[in-house]
Design a protein that fits this description.
Blueprint (H helix, E strand, L loop, with lengths): L28 E2 L5 E2 L2 E10 L2 E11 L4 E5 L6 H8 L7 E6 L2 E2 L11 H8 L2 E4 L11 H11 L5 H14 L15 H13 L5 E5 L7 H17 L3 E5 L3 H7 L2 E6 L2 E6 L1 H6 L4 H11 L2
The structure holds adenosine-5'-triphosphate and magnesium ion (MG).
Adenosine-5'-triphosphate binds next to helix 1.
Length: 288
């Protein structure tokens, strides 16, 4: 199976020097049966909380290297989609595949062990609205914790990688700072670096600027734009920032009531949406 999208600081995609990667979107890999292998595929996903159906027969596929943004009204199920991908929640029915491997079942249809689940899930990294940095650890300690414990990197290796990604987010000078000594925008950029040091192949971003002042949000979005432009990492993004969505996305999926009501290129969604519901949603957010 191809792992061509790996976001490797030592490799050819994102690097602190800012050398652009060769292509923005990677071709869909193929398995021996010539079926495309999607970076992530949600297959007929239903998710209910009690009687409340949050996601209804959701089908969503992201190509390796593709940047897909979910937009839609509050409560329509966008965060739930990302949480399911990170195995922070389990679907009520359906399957989720990461590079062709189910994060729920083995080939015999038995539920995966937690170790297997963790192995596959590790191909995803997530950045949350609230930065969730460890307050008692310095920036460097925050960045090397998971690489040394989960990926078993040596401290020196993890530090070198951390410094590389800190440079990429423009915060190499903050290596010894504690989160409380940083602005919200800086903390969020550290949170992005913390996700990247784990070398995810799929990056999940959930409203990463909505806790920030618009001015500060810009610096965080700049970092994400750069990662999107320069790396082959697949991205599934949830945002209310429509201009950002338009610039960064290969495809936009419009959610409403736990379903995708329409999807397409940013041009199609923003200039000639088919659905009346998409039009009214865009009107409400763009006039906000
Ligand atoms: N753990 C939970 N228990 C019960 N209901 C939940 C739970 N998590 C989410 N929900 C409900 O599922 C629905 C979808 O929530 P979700 O957070 O996915 O929406 P969203 O599209 O991300 O909204 P927003 O734009 O406000 O972030 C909401 O009605 C929410 O109240
Ligand atoms: Mg949400």
């Amino acid at each position: 199976m191809s792992r061509t999208t790996e976001l490797s600081s030592a490799g050819n995609r994102v690097n602190p020097g800012g050398v652009a990667s060769s292509e923005r979107k990677v071709d869909v890999s193929t398995s021996s049966k010539q079926e495309p292998v999607w970076a992530i595929e949600f297959k007929k996903i239903c998710k209910s909380f009690g009687a409340f159906r949050v996601l209804v027969d959701l089908d969503l596929k992201v190509q390796p290297g593709e940047k897909v943004t979910l937009i839609g009204p509050s409560g329509s199920g966008k965060t739930t989609v990302l949480r399911l991908a990170m195995t922070l929640a389990k679907p009520t029915s359906g399957d989720i595949r990461i590079f062709g491997e189910s994060i729920l079942f083995d080939q015999a249809g038995t539920l995966l062990s937690s170790a297997e689940e963790a192995r596959i899930r590790r191909r995803c990294g997530m950045v949350f609205q609230q930065f969730n940095l460890f307050p008692h650890l310095t920036v460097l300690q925050n960045l090397i914790l998971a690489p040394t414990t989960v990926l078993k990197q040596s401290k020196a290796e993890a530090k070198e990688s951390a410094l590389r990604y800190l440079r990429m987010v423009g915060l190499e000078g903050k290596v010894d700072a504690y989160p409380a000594q940083l602005s919200g925008g800086q903390q969020q950029r550290i949170a992005i670096a913390r996700a990247l040091v784990m070398k995810p192949e799929i990056l999940l971003l959930d409203e990463i600027t909505s806790a920030l002042d618009p001015e500060i949000a810009g610096e965080v979005l700049d970092v994400v734009r750069r990662i999107a432009r320069e790396s082959g990492v697949s991205m599934l993004i949830v945002t209310h920032e429509m201009r950002f969505a338009r610039e960064v996305s290969d495809r936009i999926a419009v959610f409403d009531g736990g379903r995708i009501i329409e999807q397409g290129t940013p041009e199609k969604i923003f200039i000639s949406p088919e659905s009346e519901r998409t039009r009214s949603f865009l009107q409400s957010v763009l006039n906000h």
